[in-house]
Design a protein that fits this description.
- The chain is built from 26 helices and 22 strands.
- It is of the alpha/beta class and 771 residues long.
- A seven-stranded mixed beta sheet has the order 11-10-12-13-15-14-20, with helices on both faces.
- Strand 18, helix 22 and strand 19 form a beta-alpha-beta unit.
- The longest helix has 47 residues.
- The N and C termini lie far apart (77 Å).
- The mean pLDDT is 97.
- Bound molecules: thiamine diphosphate and magnesium ion.
- Magnesium ion (MG) binds next to strand 5.
Length: 771
């Protein structure tokens, strides 16, 4: 109630609360042990309070969006209220001792978004128990005794992610207690619209384990029955902890006393009878009745506790509000002081006084109110040579910088293990090194990695027994065992979740998506969970997951896609690496395995059988991120590209040379980060012509590269011809070699584009070919 009021008074923007679901959360907290993990959603406030991982002040600090990590440790003001998390990393970004944490994974708002990672969180316990090589890692696990507690709303169980995860849990046999808080509704929509037969545990009965078959252990319990709740949560946790059997607890007859959130009123969609029923079945009310009935407390005692609690909550709310305002005070005060002096020094006294008055009379002024005021004040002083103008400029620059830290830090790792800090080590070759299939370079790299570090694991569709569809893991399951290199079901979303969760528990997973086109199935989890994790916790949690996939040209629709703009547009926070061959890819794996960043590596689908040499330092050499490589030097035109297009562009460059055009070909190697030392600009300064080529749709990856070089690096000033992009057709690639040729960029197309550019500046030497 107190929280809701803050929103209605305009002190907070939005509120969502866990009332009506308190009792099962207390029962869950009783079954939870230090070292266990929670992956839940916005209703779990009571559970977090009960664990001691959330104070009342912190609860309100999040409601107000307090940006101080100490005041709001879950997200430092970055997430709406009800998004809980414990800090698993120290200030330097290094792992804390996870075994001594109550480890709540940072929540996301998309319903069921918390589910895929549960697979990996539970899978980690399985590996820590079953692989004796991991038993020394007691910062992360006590031989796999840790249970993962998942929570989800009844309506969100309709999401594919949930159903996919239930199946995966049953297959993997992992220690997960999955609790469903069932209040019969998802916002305004009743259960008839959500769930077959209106009853999720009933329809999941087929997953129930039997004496002879593995599966899940299912429980159903009323959300207001404290004794039953405690018993069932204890029993489920015991089964999961001891036997590593997943359990599911369907908690029914819950209510939502204040309605879904502050954005709407439940009277619009719940009948008076239902509202009446909710009043009577509120779990706290029932709990009180039970306490009195059992003679644990009298009504008077309970009323006293309640009024004391109300006073405690109110005091915490006031303290949090005071601290929130105090955190903004220094910038407000210093801005006021500058305005006072500006009013004295400037000839625009009236305008500045008006601005100051406006800020002074703003109710609960925010940082943005002060910044807006200072920017407008500066505009009034733009023609004046007064000392205070400079101070205003300095104030704006300083606070902009501070706010960048507050609102934009930790998109990637900022620890000493950042991928950008890994030392570059060149590959070395024996003089008589033989050429082998590209896939063997990767195989040697993975072999070295698996033998070096027992926490490295690899999994995905067909990765285990046959060693992936292109055989880069061939023989490695036999050598390192099924726990290290393993097959999974066809379930891209929870393959990524399996990777995220395992990485969040100190393992080093390489999760494979069989083809780049199928990344789409995992996109929600990648963009909502993995990409935002460090950022949304302001460096409080990390998942150094490596995602391996293969793409670009080869076999036709859904097997030759290059949806780079989809990736670039949705995965900031994950590095995107696009090696042109398997040696570069191996170097990237080595770099990433030394770092705590997460990255997607897109190997070239048509490169596994091309010949390469295995470096003699296959396990050590590294390829740095953000460093393009000039793979052919030239003087007339620069072509910027990556991945499988490198070979096409190199062929075009050979053809162009035959007509006297000298092409410089640059492989950007990584799209995120992009050319961190502006090396492409150097090339454009030499050639004065530039083309950006890839296999994405027009306006996709090629346009991104153009923006980086022309706008960000400032290359436009050095151009003698318009910068151009070259891409695939607007549609998906077509099957067959001709389909490939006519829908993706080919060498002749690259030639013509480059030739046209030269023709424009010298039509005599390069006459129009198609006139
Ligand atoms: C993917 C997605 N779709 C829609 C929403 C909007 N939304 C937020 S909560 C909610 C209802 C969830 O109901 P339920 O899972 O039963 O949880 P409850 O709030 O009832 O505890 C919806 C539709 C969302 N956050 N994410
Ligand atoms: Mg619900």
């Amino acid at each position: 109630m107190l929280g809701k009021k803050e929103v209605f008074m305009g002190k907070a923007k939005f509120g969502i609360f866990g009332d009506g679901k308190e009792l099962p959360q207390i029962a869950m907290a009783k079954a939870f042990r230090r070292g266990d993990i929670r992956s839940g959603y916005y209703r779990d406030q009571t559970f977090m309070f009960a664990l001691g991982e959330l104070t009342l002040e912190q609860f309100f600090a999040q409601l107000y969006a307090h940006t101080d990590v100490d005041a709001e440790p879950a997200s430092a003001g970055r997430l709406m209220n009800g998004h809980f998390a414990t800090r698993a990393l120290d200030e330097k970004g290094h792992w804390k001792d996870l075994l001594h944490l109550n480890y709540a994974i940072s929540d996301v708002s998309p319903t069921a978004g918390q589910i895929p990672r549960i697979i990996g969180l539970g899978y980690a316990s399985k590996l820590y128990r079953q692989n004796p090589q991991l038993h020394g890692l007691n910062q992360f696990s006590n031989k796999g005794n840790e249970v993962v507690f998942g929570t989800i709303g009844n309506a969100a169980t309709s999401e594919g992610m949930f159903l996919e995860a239930v199946n995966a849990m049953g297959v993997l046999q992992i220690p997960v207690v999955m609790a469903i808080w069932d209040d019969d509704y998802g916002i305004s929509v009743p259960k008839e619209y959500h769930t077959t037969k209106g009853d999720i545990s009933k329809i999941l009965q087929g997953y129930q384990r039997t004496e002879t078959e593995e599966g899940l252990e299912l429980f159903k319990v009323k959300g207001w029955d404290y004794v039953a709740l405690c018993k069932i949560f204890r029993e489920a946790a015991n089964i999961s902890r001891k036997l590593h059997v997943p359990t599911l607890i369907h908690v029914t007859e819950l209510t939502q006393q204040q309605g879904h959130s502050t954005s709407g009123s439940q009277e619009r969609y719940k009948s008076p009878e239902r509202l009446q029923w909710e009043q009577e079945h509120d779990c706290l009310l029932k709990f009180k009745e039970w306490l009195i009935e059992e003679d644990f407390a009298s009504a008077t005692e309970l009323n006293e506790i309640e009024s004391e609690s109300r006073a405690t909550a109110k005091a915490a709310k006031n303290a949090a509000w005071k601290a929130f305002n105090a955190s903004m005070r220094p910038d407000f005060d210093s801005a006021m002081a500058i305005l006072d002096t500006a009013i004295l020094q400037s000839s625009h006294k009236n305008e500045l006084s008006d601005l100051k008055k406006e800020l002074e009379t703003t109710l609960n002024p925010l940082r943005s109110d002060v910044t807006k005021c200072m920017i407008k004040a500066l505009r009034h002083m733009r023609n004046e040579r007064i000392a205070i103008r400079k101070e205003a400029v300095a104030w704006i620059k300083r606070t902009n910088n501070d706010n960048k830290g507050r609102y934009s830090s930790h998109l990637y790792s900022e620890s000493s293990f950042s991928a950008l800090k890994v030392k570059a080590i060149k590959p070395r070759y024996k003089s008589d090194e033989k050429l082998v299939d590209g896939r063997q370079v990767l195989q040697a790299c993975f072999d070295a990695a698996l033998s070096r570090d027992p926490s490295i694991i690899a999994f995905g569709e067909d990765v285990g027994l046959i060693g992936d569809v292109n055989r880069a893991f061939a023989g490695l399951q036999v050598k390192y065992g099924e726990l290290r290199v393993t097959d999974t079901g066809i379930r891209e979303c929870t393959i990524i979740g399996q990777g995220i969760g395992a990485a969040m528990r100190g393992l080093r997973p390489i999760a494979e998506i069989q083809y780049l086109d199928y990344l789409v199935y995992a996109l929600a989890t990648l963009t909502d969970d993995l990409a935002t994790l460090q950022y949304r916790t302001r460096g409080g949690q990390k998942a150094p997951l490596i995602i391996r996939t293969r793409g670009h040209r080869l076999e036709g629709m859904w097997h030759a896609g290059s949806p780079i703009s989809m990736i670039l547009g949705s995965m900031r926070g994950i590095y995107i690496l696009v090696p042109r061959n398997m040696t570069q890819a191996a170097g990237f794996y080595n770099t990433l395995l030394q770092s705590d960043d997460t990255a997607l590596i897109i190997e070239c689908l048509n490169g596994y059988r091309l010949k390469e040499k295995i470096p003699s330092n296959i396990g050590e050499f590294t390829v740095p991120l953000g460093m393009p490589e000039v793979i052919r030097e030239g003087t007339d035109i620069t072509v910027v590209t990556y991945g499988s297009m490198c070979r096409i562009v190199m062929e075009a460059a050979r053809q162009l040379q035959q007509v006297g055009i000298s092409t410089e070909v640059i492989d950007v190697q990584t799209l995120l980060p992009f050319d961190i030392s502006n090396s492409i600009l150097g090339s454009v300064k030499k050639t004065h012509r530039v083309m950006f080529a890839d296999e994405d749709v027009p306006g996709g990856g090629s346009a991104y590269m153009m923006q980086q070089v022309i706008e960000k690096q400032g290359a436009y000033a050095y151009l003698d011809a318009e910068p151009i992009t070259l891409s695939s057709n607007d549609h998906r690639p077509v099957y067959g070699s001709d389909g490939d040729y006519f829908t993706k960029p080919n060498a002749e197309f690259v030639f013509d584009k480059a030739y046209d550019l030269m023709s424009e500046s010298d039509p005599i030497a390069f006459p129009d070919l198609y006139r």
